[in-house]
Amino acid sequence: MNFKHFTKVLLQWYPQNKRELPWRNTQNPYIIWLSEIILQQTRVAQGLPYFHNFLEKYPTVYDLAAAPTDDVLRMWQGLGYYSRARNLHACARQITQEFGGKFPDRYASLLLLKGVGTYTAAAIASFAYKEKVAVVDGNVFRVLSRYFGMTDDISSPDGKKAFQSLADKLIPKDVPDEFNQAIMEFGALQCTPKNPDCTICPLRQGCYARQHEMIDMLPVKIKKVKVTKRYFVYYHISCGEYILINKRDRKDIWEGLHDFPMEEVETLDTFELKKSVLMEKLKQFDAEIAYNPEIYFKHILTHQRIFSTFVKVQIALENLEILHQWGTENGWMLISRDAFENLGKPKLIVNYLNDKKL
DNA sequence: GTCCGGTAAC
DNA sequence: GTTACCGGAC
């Protein structure tokens, strides 16, 4: 395994490259805790002035606990994620009221604190008490996934566990605090999210991502696209050998593909043919209409779930000319079945035409 | 405009 | 298990 090499290089790299930051070189849990809460979701440069302001105004956890919540929130102004400030304050009161003013000194007990999750508990436990528990933050995901070629999804709980497990195997028992600082600093300064300079990387030998040209693909983070539901009512309007079709335009799915005239509705449950604007217009034609609301197609895209029904309209041949005119006015085309066959269509339409559900 | 990121609440 | 929370960098 490369474990030994990885850890050795990191521990060697860190003292030569680390930034001098005010919360390093202290084992005061209050200072470490304060800095870690501020640094959650926040870059060092942005958090630094807040850290100084807080420590000046609240030198001890008692000062912070005694402050009005409004003051704490005012101090936090501009830093974002304001639940952190509320939790910071609640945690300070927790410490003074439930823990006699003394921070818990073990990972498991630190997790009981408001606003302290696995990362922050590990950071405090290792930095203040040298407990051998690995921090896993965004930097650690990146460094480990790239060096070891770990493709687990970091946005899933299982993926997070896999990284925690690996980090816990890597962390040395003699200098767990140094290791935690080193791997995060390495991620922040050397193994950066974008354009890392691998030519000067001390871990380039043995780096999986570099050897496999996967720097830009790691870590794997599966985007949680929110799936929206949409409801389409399609009108399959034919006249002899001709059908009325629609070319889909920009700013929506299936740009440039062909489908039918349609109406998008809020939900199919309450859709009624007699309320349809299109049906109203179709009344001018001599037509035969078939619609079964029981039958619908479900179509799944990455970010959309489409439910659609089809209204079949057969128009008398003598209406061909006026149908063509009406279609043109609406930006549709009246073309032969054969011609439609040769146009690109969404899978949903193809499924319908193939009678998948009808 | 897109990406980034710990925790708690849902 | 999934989502809301915020501001800054690019």
TrEMBL record:
<dbReference type="InterPro" id="IPR015797">
    <property type="entry name" value="NUDIX_hydrolase-like_dom_sf"/>
</dbReference>
<dbReference type="InterPro" id="IPR023170">
    <property type="entry name" value="HhH_base_excis_C"/>
</dbReference>
<keyword id="KW-0227">DNA damage</keyword>
<dbReference type="GO" id="GO:0046872">
    <property type="term" value="F:metal ion binding"/>
</dbReference>
<dbReference type="GO" id="GO:0006298">
    <property type="term" value="P:mismatch repair"/>
</dbReference>
<keyword id="KW-0479">Metal-binding</keyword>
<feature type="domain" description="HhH-GPD">
    <location>
        <begin position="38"/>
        <end position="189"/>
    </location>
</feature>
<comment type="similarity">
    <text>Belongs to the Nth/MutY family.</text>
</comment>
<dbReference type="Pfam" id="PF14815">
    <property type="entry name" value="NUDIX_4"/>
</dbReference>
<dbReference type="GO" id="GO:0035485">
    <property type="term" value="F:adenine/guanine mispair binding"/>
</dbReference>
<dbReference type="InterPro" id="IPR011257">
    <property type="entry name" value="DNA_glycosylase"/>
</dbReference>
<dbReference type="InterPro" id="IPR044298">
    <property type="entry name" value="MIG/MutY"/>
</dbReference>
<keyword id="KW-0378">Hydrolase</keyword>
<dbReference type="GO" id="GO:0032357">
    <property type="term" value="F:oxidized purine DNA binding"/>
</dbReference>
<keyword id="KW-0004">4Fe-4S</keyword>
<dbReference type="Pfam" id="PF00730">
    <property type="entry name" value="HhH-GPD"/>
</dbReference>
<keyword id="KW-0411">Iron-sulfur</keyword>
<dbReference type="GO" id="GO:0034039">
    <property type="term" value="F:8-oxo-7,8-dihydroguanine DNA N-glycosylase activity"/>
</dbReference>
<keyword id="KW-0326">Glycosidase</keyword>
<keyword id="KW-0408">Iron</keyword>
<dbReference type="InterPro" id="IPR003265">
    <property type="entry name" value="HhH-GPD_domain"/>
</dbReference>
<dbReference type="GO" id="GO:0006284">
    <property type="term" value="P:base-excision repair"/>
</dbReference>
<dbReference type="GO" id="GO:0051539">
    <property type="term" value="F:4 iron, 4 sulfur cluster binding"/>
</dbReference>
<dbReference type="InterPro" id="IPR005760">
    <property type="entry name" value="A/G_AdeGlyc_MutY"/>
</dbReference>
<keyword id="KW-0234">DNA repair</keyword>
<dbReference type="GO" id="GO:0000701">
    <property type="term" value="F:purine-specific mismatch base pair DNA N-glycosylase activity"/>
</dbReference>
<comment type="function">
    <text>Adenine glycosylase active on G-A mispairs. MutY also corrects error-prone DNA synthesis past GO lesions which are due to the oxidatively damaged form of guanine: 7,8-dihydro-8-oxoguanine (8-oxo-dGTP).</text>
</comment>
<dbReference type="InterPro" id="IPR029119">
    <property type="entry name" value="MutY_C"/>
</dbReference>
<protein>
    <recommendedName>
        <fullName>Adenine DNA glycosylase</fullName>
        <ecNumber>3.2.2.31</ecNumber>
    </recommendedName>
</protein>
